[in-house]
Amino acid sequence: MQNIKKKIEKLKKNLNLKRTLGLIWSITKGKVIYTVLIMIMESLVFMGSLYVFKLLIDIVALPDRNEKYDLAVLYIIAAGIAAITLVVLSSLASYITQKHAFLISEYVDDKIHSIAIALDLSFYESPAYFNTLNRAKNAGPDRPSAILTNIISIVKNLMTLTVIGIALISINWVLMPLLALFVLPTLYVRLKFADKLYEWQIQKTPTERKSKYLSSLITGEVAAKEIKSFGLGHYIRSMYKNLRIYLLLEDLRINKKGITNEAVTQILAAAGVYSCIAYICLSALNGESSIGDIALFLIVFPQLFGIMQGLSGEISSLYKNNIFLSYLYDLFDLENKMKDPQKPVLISQNSPDLTLKNVHFCYPHANKTVLKNINLKIPAGKVVALVGLNGSGKTTLIKLLCRLYDPTSGAIKLGGENIKNFKTDDYRKQISVVFQDFVKFNMSVTENIQFGNIHEEADHDFIKDSAIKSGAHEYIKEFPDGYNTTMGRIFDNGREVSIGQWQKLAIARALYSKSQFIIFDEATSALDAKSEQEIFDDLREHIGNRGILVISHRVSAVKHADYIYVMSEGEIAQEGTHEKLISENGDYAKLFKRKKTIAANKTSENGAE
Ligand code: ADP
């Protein structure tokens, strides 16, 4: 009893239709009601035609049938009109349903994208998010419209069932409950099967994602060079195949169990149907039913069985669609931790300073403190440099400066105001970054640069100016289509350039932005020394009131900075000017003296050759 109660509770929870119906209603703007009305009309016409058919048979069975000839013709015409009406209504219904299904799919697809755009970066660094996204994408777009079709079919079938059921009860009342009893086990195993599929879907998502990842390594552009040069293709292919085989075998096992259980219940149902037929035939032989009744029974009974089976199918499919839709709601319900303040402060455009005060930081899904008590200042109009070994926390610090994460404790302030008090989008507009792993947009040169400030109309002179400053103009001017050239090799007529040339484009993008601060995270690492020097000279000259933060391993890129911070294991180990830091003989001096020695050794080796 307790078990059944639990099952009913679970069924109720999974069949939470309210949200889905609300969603459908809001997307179709209530027009879904037309589909429902048409389908109800369809059912009524169908039932009417059945009734006319019964009347016709009764006339044929009458001894004085010749006198009712006109009436019989009238019934035949009525049945014909009903048949044509049915075709028209069902075509209309299927067109409208398709239209709504299309609208709903588009909405869901777009909603998935808008959620992905709105979510904090922390989600993108958590496998749980990608599992949720994967499930939502797999389960998503068609489910709400499928649910709509399920509900309409259930209503339609129930209406038909009522009318035919009444006819059947008039023949013999036992037949209806008996038939229902035979169909119920099928419904039960289908619902159970849906639960199994749901659990399996959750369980298999990480493996499915891994197999997709492996496939993208083999088929995609990003890893192609290394896969081929290290000869990794067949190794990864066999890893992929093993995962797919595991998934396939488990899919087959679950499906086999589902099909077997269904087959058993179907046999039960068929036995039920034949028992009923035997029962009614015996009662006819006893003279307890009219010929009209028997004819009606033979027409109606198989239909009724079909409708009941259909109902069981629709209910289980409705249940399945609903629980799978919960994957979509899992995504819809994700909430950002960083929220805009109720009354955001306006950002000063008066060249404020950017400062970090006692900042500590630990990644949300990790427990190691990555930044410890950081105090740092990027004044307007100054170039500040940040150096440190790999893993010392420089990129993490940039993520905090861009407000992709909030500090665990301490504060980041712009012009003395905690950045949490600004609207996040407004604040982010103040910072433009050239990331170490910048994006190579396979789009036009103009778009690649314009993305630095997408909030305003493209300013083509400024785009060119930014490209000149970053050194990208040098090669863009050689393209026959100039700034309209598509970059990269993914699309037709795209132009591929070297990594250093891509980097110049990324720098142009940052320069095009109207932000008050620019951050270069190893942004000149792929440039030759001359290009790098030119960029920094130019920056110095045109810096104006902008604050610049440069992260680099090259002495040439940092030594002219106004102020330098040295990071070590998440802490600021040293700070000051280049001259001061070199004289201190600490981490900074070691870092650059070692580099100098390596460079000197290389030169002497080359000389010896
Ligand atoms: P740097 O840029 O100086 O090379 P990072 O800021 O990238 O250093 O990394 C600092 C530390 O933070 C490293 O120990 C690294 O393992 C850890 N870390 C970096 N990114 C993440 C992340 N997304 N989640 C958890 N830990 C991270």
What does this protein look like?
The protein is an alpha/beta fold. It folds into three domains: 9-180 and 269-332, Up-down Bundle (ABC transporter transmembrane region fold), CATH 1.20.1560; 350-430 and 517-537 and 544-609, 3-Layer(aba) Sandwich (Rossmann fold), CATH 3.40.50; 438-514, Rossmann fold. Helices cover 64% and strands 10% of the residues. Strand 7 (517-521), helix 18 (529-542) and strand 8 form a beta-alpha-beta unit. The relative contact order is 0.08.
Record keyword descriptors for this entry.
609 residues; alpha/beta; ABC transporter transmembrane region fold; Rossmann fold; 3 domains; six-stranded mixed beta sheet; four-stranded antiparallel beta sheet; 21 helices; 64% helix; disordered C terminus; binds adenosine-5'-diphosphate; ABC1_TM_dom; transmembrane; transport; ABC_transporter-like_ATP-bd; ABC transporter ATP-binding protein
